Automatic annotation (TrEMBL), chains A, B:
Keyword Glycosyltransferase set for record: yes
Family: Belongs to the NAPRTase family.
Listed name of the protein: Nicotinate phosphoribosyltransferase
Reactions listed under catalytic activity: 5-phospho-alpha-D-ribose 1-diphosphate + nicotinate + ATP + H2O = nicotinate beta-D-ribonucleotide + ADP + phosphate + diphosphate
Protein's GO biological process: NAD+ biosynthetic process via the salvage pathway
Length: 438, 438
């Protein structure tokens, strides 16, 4: 065997192994939302924070702040590449061409930048936790979400891998691949199942996510409908999947000047959204302030939307509720889409598929337990590679606090007095308090 | 990433990917027996045959004869390398230096060669099977055994791998590694267990065997006592493990000129062996014509031998029988060694260790189910990679048929009338008919 002298020397010369190497390495819905914000709220200022809901894992013990800063500076130095912008302009998304306007693409090339940030080592009860805070124009803050989550997630992975021997690393990945393939084999027994990959933000690593997506794409045929990761969609000719997130209704709610405006803001988001997007991109996320009240109070035209994504309610209940609501409004549920995306794994995907089959077009957005399921894989039995609940939340908009109630009491965010006010406005019926896994 | 032009072009230029690349890539006991034969029977002619006891697998469908011949010609072209001979001369085996005589090493360098061979496509009931036949001086035939078995075994592997995609190959090895590591984890819970690797002849492939041996060596500490593979021992500073095989008593039996000589020949082997070897190499293999009769008729000095290898009897029974026999002869069984080597897997190794612990020094010779356990690993659920029962048997010595009775009725080999004659001479008590797994 010949020695590759250049490669060997280069392997000793590495300064940084960047985690996020392309601005497209983000969820597709962030780009849709970015255009939405650029168009409708270009001057609004916001603050977002990344933190770890899994308090037992102390991030500061695993992630050196200096290294995190290096990774974040690398991302800030990235620009959209010419061929990426051409792809955004020329590709069809959900069958539609020119989803991104020329003015927006021009701004992506010449005007887009990422806001400044703080890395904060928390103290007191949160001792050992790290928090990232982003403040600035909403257009400069919003894209940090996925980059920052993916950076923190993969830096934690690297820290856990650093103590393992070559054999242990090999065993670790063998087990994770075995586990993945067992899941794929289960899914292959049900040809009609539909799922896409939603796991960028809490992935084990970029390369593992790419491996997982490649394995699903190769093995599942039409059951695998695509990836939320825009870079992977671009690189591997996949469908880029996603629509919108809680960030939008939360911001519009924060900007409301009265309780009436606050209540109306949840539909105002949809009104604005459908000015820019249509068809499969009209998938609403009704749980921000409670799904039941959202549906009850929705104007008639909301029933024309293509589907619903369920992110914090038991999808069996939420799906039935949505079907009943559609029927009440004279719409054929079998033509609508219902997407579940909250902590799914293969068993639940199959259960939901069987439950909703023929009643509504169900598809699963499979996230953390697809791209970061190393449970039971650690060669020393350690928990250092098990997924944690990393989240990024909008904290304030133009200085006003941002609030989410959600369908799960434990997922409510915002100051207590604001949560109370929101509960008065939106009601607080029919919320459960399920434990949050990821 | 730079392209390695030379490597890429070379990968298209390969003519042959040799399976056996060193004459040391054989069981250590073959070298011990080769010296024994070279010393005591340099002019004896024998015939050996390699065949497949697993009739459901038709070798000819998987192994092109031309390619097999190319591999065998490659082995025939090999010579002992200078550094290999220096290692054989200078290394200590079982703590003893100079096990190989200078004259023998000189002959290995200048006089050793492999006999001619035939590759026979069988017909009739055996349609689809391949047989390899080796005829010539015993010193030229004997070494073919392991080379030929390893070639056939790995060529079958390659044929099964050839239809798999890159992802499927990756899944296959991930599963096999997961399985191996699960076995290692079980063994690690019992620090006192002792085992060595005996799986050259039926290995999945050389590289897999090397991986497995590396994993055991790294993970099991002193529980892993070494490998029977001399090349791996040489390459990785392991103990080379092994003593002798049925080939010796079978040949001496065939050479016997009377029933009395036939009966005595089973002890004559030991007499000759102990002229060349001592200590840990004095491990007898008493099952060739039945263990019980062997022990009953053994001269007193046989009880001085260091241990016994059990290859065809239930080791729980054979071990108890050996301990009782040692006790009867006034020997302390706790100082003796008892080795089981027949179709073991981790459960049985742990069971035997627990059973014999403190009563005799038990160790396991772990073969096929260590180096070729791909059961349940095939990504398409196919059986093409499950181990088969490939064997090499001495067929005749100086034109006389060679016979083995063994402790398992199904493992008897030789012409029926000769088996009958041997059974008259040796008796046929206490043999079972367990199914042969590998």
């Amino acid at each position: 065997m010949q020695v590759n002298f250049a490669e060997r020397a280069h392997n000793h010369n590495w300064k940084l192994d960047p985690i996020v190497r392309s601005l497209l390495d983000t969820d597709f819905y962030k780009l849709l939302m970015l255009q939405f914000i650029w168009k409708n709220f270009p001057q609004v200022h916001v603050t977002s924070e990344v933190f770890n809901r899994t308090l037992s894992v102390k991030l500061a013990e695993h992630i050196p702040i200096d290294l995190l800063r290096q990774q974040m500076e690398f991302v800030r130095g990235l620009r959209f590449r010419k061929s990426e912008l051409i792809w955004l302009a020329g590709n069809t998304f959900y069958g539609t061409r020119s989803i991104f306007e020329p003015g927006f693409l021009d701004w992506l090339e010449h005007g887009f930048k990422l806001s400044d940030y703080e890395i904060i080592a928390l103290t007191g009860e949160q001792e050992g936790q790290l928090m990232l805070r982003f403040s600035g124009l909403w257009t400069e803050v919003t894209m940090w979400e996925i980059y920052a989550l993916a950076l923190v997630s993969e830096m934690r992975t690297r820290s856990a891998l650093a103590v393992l021997s070559e054999l242990e690393l090999d065993v670790l990945y063998a087990r994770a691949k075995t586990k993945l393939w067992d899941k794929i084999e289960r899914l292959r027994t049900v040809p009609g199942v539909r799922l896409s990959e939603f796991g960028t933000r809490r992935r084990h690593s970029f390369l593992w996510q790419e491996y997982v997506v490649g394995a699903l794409h190769t093995s599942l045929g039409s059951s695998f409908t695509g990836s939320s990761n825009t870079h992977l969609a671009y690189k591997h000719d996949l469908e880029a999947i996603g629509t919108n997130a809680h960030e939008l209704p939360m911001a519009l709610a924060a900007l409301a000047n009265s309780d009436e405006e606050l209540y109306a803001s949840q539909y105002r988001v949809l009104e604005l959204w459908q000015k820019s997007y249509g068809g499969e991109l009209l998938v609403m996320l009704p749980d921000t302030f409670g799904t039941t009240q959202f549906l009850e109070g929705a104007p008639e035209w909301v029933a024309d939307w293509t589907g619903q994504r369920c992110d914090s309610k038991d999808p069996l209940i939420a799906g039935d509720e949505y079907i009943a609501w559609l029927t009440k409004h004279g719409r054929d549920a079998r033509k609508k889409r219902f997407i579940a995306s909250d902590g799914l794994d293969v068993e639940q995907i199959l259960e939901l598929h069987a439950y909703f089959n023929e009643r509504i077009r169900f598809s699963a957005g499979w996230g953390t337990l697809l791209t970061n399921d190393f449970r039971g894989c650690h060669p020393r039995g350690d928990a250092a590679l098990e997924p944690i609940s990393l989240v990024c939340k909008l904290k304030s908009v133009e200085g006003r606090p941002a609030v989410k109630l959600s369908d799960n009491l434990r997922k409510a965010t915002g100051p207590a007095e604001e949560i109370a006010r929101y509960r008065k406005v939106f009601g607080s019926e029919a919320r459960d308090g399920s434990a949050i896994l990821v």
